[in-house]
Amino acid sequence: MGLRGADLVARALARAGTRYVFALSGNHVMPIFDAALDAKLPLLHVRHEAAAVHMADAWGRLTGEVGVALVTGGPGHANAVSALYTALAAESPVLLLSGHAPTNELGKGAFQEMAQAEMAAPACKASWTVRSAATLGEDLARAMRMAKTGRPGPVHLSLPSDLLEASVDAQLPERKDFLAEANHPGAHETILEVLRTAKKPLLIAGPALGYTRGRKLLEQFEQSTQVPSIVMESPRGVNDPCMGLLAEVLAAADVVVLAGKRRDFTLRFGAAFGKDCKVFEFDGLPDSKSLAGKTWQKSGWRDEVRSAIAFRPAQWKTLASNPGGPLHPVEVGREVQKLLMAPESVLVADGGEFGQWAQATVTAPHRVINGVAGSIGAALPFAAAAKLAMPGSNVVAMLGDGTFGFHSSELETAVRCGLGFLAVVGNDACWNAEYQIQLRSYGAPRALGLDLLPARYDRVAEGFGAHGEYVERPAELAPALERAMGAGRAACVNVMIERLPAPTFRRG
Ligand SMILES: Cc1ncc(C[n+]2csc(CCOP(=O)(O)OP(=O)(O)O)c2C)c(N)n1
């Protein structure tokens, strides 16, 4: 038998070095499942198409490789699209491959026919339908390069099923055709000079510089220039509690360079800066070669910035919950922090108020958060992909109880695939972030519709074969976390917490 279009796709993915394809099956893509066998392309089957994209997203952020998701056409594709938005805002290199109705039936009411490329386009860097079986390999190579080049992001290809089944006589692209480095464009002498002569300069990087390799570049830049750099990748921006007293720093800076960071809502569209501050927008980082021979003055400003961002209330160190429970989120964070001290540990934070408490109380060398998109629900798929990418690491996801419900069935995926991460659910029996808005904006008597049951998410996890722990009182927390970490499989610790608004900080 000659090669089918599907073989070209599977072999091209394998040649590109794709280590996993996060997939959910469906009629249109079954030829690719079949072709994956011969191409030795590992498929990891998930429980919801959005989870496949979230996993590809976390994979992209943590490894720098393009994360690949494969879903079926029509409704399968539609399910995947919402998750593209998170990857787009996070500047994560993702390729979404969706099956598609066959070309010879288009316009006739084909099974699950839908304008898929158009539907994905607003949430992607690029989005198109492949037109010929012979170009499937080239299309894939181009899509992968686009996902990684410049500011990384998701790219979508729709693959009509007749092209996947057609016999092809086409060459596979070379390995090099799939490769492109996330580039951080080069020097900009004027900007460097302005930074060098500023008294309180600040470099604010966008999400793409916040992941493993980007962070190294930022560290090098900061070491060479003494200019403090921060990454803004969280939805509350200036009010993000994990950024401590960032608002003070932004108001005091005299020169700000936005390095691949938009002057968007997270910076109050620029109103977060002092009125005399000079703000420059630059698409990336000046490269270190152009710094040679320059002298950069050290000053106390860099330390001032660091300590402002690290600011947390002193009482957090000793804050204790009521012994009878529920727990204060700070106490939960303090215990979880102990699990994430090793160099490769990963923190996943998601959800409304609890997600913010988690980010404010826990740090880890690697972080995957729901990001500027502010979309909740991705934590469990993120954690599963993180464990796959970094199998020797402790991976802890901290998520709200509402958030848990979005992708709880991925705990089954985790157990089935041997992905032993820990999910810590902050259970306040509420969609608290929105409840807090009701309290602030409309008052307690007008609170409506946001209560949840104090549900036993630990038992849900057990039902999927994971390890479950239920924590009502502070004394139970540490032993429960220890048992969960030692369980040797995915685990869920369901912690009853106080229903508190996320913290905001003022000095003094
Ligand atoms: C996909 C999506 N749907 C809805 C929202 C709005 N939203 C933001 S936080 C939140 C409540 C989250 O509740 P939970 O996970 O229990 O966390 P809590 O705020 O209670 O700590 C909601 C509904 C959103 N940001 N993203």
Descriptive overview:
It contains 19 helices and 18 strands. The chain has 508 residues and is α/β, with parallel strands linked by helices. Helix 1 (5-15) runs parallel beside helix 6 and helix 3 crosses helix 14. It has helices spanning 5-15, 30-39, 49-63, 75-89, 116-120, 136-148, 161-165, 189-197, 212-225, 246-252, 301-310, 329-337, 353-361, 379-389, 401-404, 410-416, 432-442, 457-463, 474-485; strands at 3-4, 21-23, 43-45, 67-71, 94-100, 126-129, 154-160, 167-168, 201-205, 229-231, 255-259, 278-282, 346-350, 366-369, 395-400, 422-427, 467-471, 491-496. Bound molecules: thiamine diphosphate (TPP). Thiamine diphosphate (TPP) binds at residues 351-354, 374-377, 400-403, 426, 428, 430-434.
Write the layout of secondary structure elements.
Layout lengths: L2 E2 H11 L5 E3 L6 H10 L3 E3 L3 H15 L3 E5 L3 H15 L4 E7 L15 H5 L5 E4 L6 H13 L5 E7 H5 L1 E2 L20 H9 L3 E5 L6 H14 L3 E3 L14 H7 L2 E5 L18 E5 L18 H10 L18 H9 L8 E5 L2 H9 L4 E4 L9 H11 L5 E6 H4 L5 H7 L5 E6 L4 H11 L14 H7 L3 E5 L2 H12 L5 E6 L12
Parallel strand pairs: 2-3, 2-4, 4-5, 5-7, 6-7, 9-10, 9-11, 11-12, 13-14, 13-15, 15-16, 16-18, 17-18
Antiparallel strand pairs: 1-8
Helix pairs in contact: 1-2, 1-6, 3-4, 3-14, 12-13, 12-19
The structure holds thiamine diphosphate (TPP).
